[in-house]
Amino acid sequence: MSMSELRRSTAIAAALCLVLITGPVEAASILHHDLEVRLEPATHTLAVRDRITFPAATPRELVVLLHPGLAPRVEESTATLAALESGDDAAVATRYRLSLAPGVDTVTLSYRGVIDHPLEQVGEEYARGQTETRGTISPGGVYLAGAARWYPQFEAGGLFSATLSVDLPEGWDAVSQGVRAGHEITDGRRRVRWESREPQDDLCLVADRYTEYGARAGGVEAMVFLRAPDDALARQYLEATTGYLALYASLIGPYPYGKWAAVENFWETGYGLPSFTLLGPKVIRFPFILHSSYPHEILHSWWGNGVFADTAGGNWSEGLTAYLADHLVKEQRGEGAEYRQTTLQKYADYVLSGRDLPLSDFRSRHGSVTEAVGYGKSLMLFHLLRLELGDAAFVGGLREFWGRMRFATASFADLRRAFEQASGRELGWFFDQWVTRTGAPQLRLRGARAAGPDGRDLALTLEQTQAGDPYRLRVPVAVTVEGGAEAVVAVLEMTGRTLETTIPGLPGRPLRVDVDPGFDLFRRLDRNEIPPALSQAFGADKALVLLPAAAPPALAAAYRDLAGAIGRSGPGDVEIREDREFTDLPPDRAIFLLGWENRFLPALRGAI
């Protein structure tokens, strides 16, 4: 670990300033669900009774959304429910008009039916393709999130709190957000009660045949739910939970929930949910997950599930979480520069002309391009902000933001206000430059020479070569000098397209200049900075997949299946042909050669 990274990572993890904490939204000001749910996995069914309490000044007519086929009814005579005409989303939700009598603030809806959507592949199969379901109740497991419309949702939106009582077969168990207030077996049925008094924007319920493990982490209940007993794995997760909760509480502010649970899912996922994470059977057992994806999901309890992202102006939560989890772990190991280089390489490889989008348009990840922008560019934004303000003001901004916006919906504008408050600086230019603009700066060192009477000054010229307006940058430059054990580092302020400047009084004659050697800037890398990687081929505008005509039939079919997967995995325009159709490899596209039998394989070996 370099001294500069050691200072930065130690300061960011240990700076303990006064934390401004405001209370959560008052319970009386938001809607409350009191749900009683009976699950029957064998028949894919649920039965629900939901007593809804409305806040003051709620309109007398509301539009309710529910999963199709649930046939809800109102139990009281002081309210009516009528189905509305089907819209474009009829396959996803049925719309109802709920009419409340004057002065009525509670209503009870009852309904039952089947929810059983199969797992489907979404996104690109290479680099972040994933399998998802809108919701399922099955003998293999239960997964119900807001997308399933399994609880009454209101078209007007808004935050809510919830209590959730779940009745399911003996041998099964259920996990949801909040704290567990009941857990017993009665008459051959498992009954579980979860209470989430904190404001929420979604409600998730999962169930399976779990073995449970637990420990206390300060005032927080740490829990692990595994589909098969594994004492050693559970112990690792409980220890990691304790450490990361303490780290982020000291950095940002107190953990906002009463429990944190690592829950094994019945298919491969990595979901961060309020007060728990849902990890697939293989994912949860990968040894690197404990110090990569796992702290990321824990941190979402602050960013995303503790402060909600106002995605209308861009989802900031994924980038901030990636920066304070994935990047911070790497930085503390002395691997921060390598992590940032990989981040910038993904942007260079995937975000080609015509594919870019500003952070203000990023909502969620659905492929390599959106990941490179919404996670990669966003985490680099927070790295730049930290370098711009210094560690103390950066940490102060995080705490100001958390204290001001806890359990509220926040935008990039709210982030800006928090960091301006903490630093005493105007940051409109910074957020305009990195949030609302597409693209990235490109730097070129046009010239550098020894200068001054003793040759110990360095005169250099930097250029921004990207199209469009120049960026306002603080460019790190490392100068290797004659007789020097370490390079001399200077930071150059660059506000125009060209910067001509002199670095005076070096301790020796300058021999070498490195621009941004630690990859601290968000910029489009020069190709000479990018090591060979598959992402360069998967991010190409055009690609050719060459199949070996001489392959045996069984292998030929497998190669064709692989070619189809490549075609769905990122390149813009993919052509699949046989090697016998070409005499030479075309130079204008990425090329995938499949099979030892491929006639162009010797040419590839000769190029390596």
Provide structural commentary.
This protein is α+β, with helices and mostly antiparallel strands. The protein contains 12 helices and 33 strands. The strands form 9 sheets. The chain has a 7-stranded mixed sheet, with no helix packed on it. A hairpin with a 2-residue loop joins strand 15 and strand 16. Helix 4 (317-332) packs across helix 5. The longest helix has 22 residues, at 368-389. The protein is globular. Mean pLDDT is 90; it is low at 1-25.
Write the layout of secondary structure elements.
Layout: H1 3-14, E1 31-40, E2 45-53, E3 61-66, E4 73-74, E5 79-83, E6 94-100, E7 106-114, E8 120-122, E9 130-132, E10 136-138, E11 141-144, E12 153-154, E13 160-169, E14 173-176, E15 179-186, E16 189-200, E17 205-208, E18 211-217, E19 220-226, H2 231-251, E20 259-264, E21 270-273, E22 276-279, H3 293-299, E23 308-309, H4 317-332, H5 336-350, H6 368-389, H7 391-405, E24 409-410, H8 412-423, H9 428-435, E25 443-451, E26 457-464, E27 473-481, E28 488-494, E29 498-503, E30 510-515, H10 534-538, E31 542-547, H11 553-567, E32 573-578, E33 590-593, H12 601-607
Parallel strand pairs: 1-13, 19-20, 20-22, 23-24, 31-32, 31-33
Antiparallel strand pairs: 1-2, 2-7, 3-6, 3-12, 4-7, 5-6, 8-9, 10-11, 11-17, 13-16, 14-17, 15-16, 18-19, 21-22, 25-26, 26-29, 27-28, 27-30
What key phrases describe this protein's structure?
single chain, globular, 608 residues, five-stranded mixed β-sheet, disordered N terminus, 12 helices, seven-stranded mixed β-sheet, alpha+beta
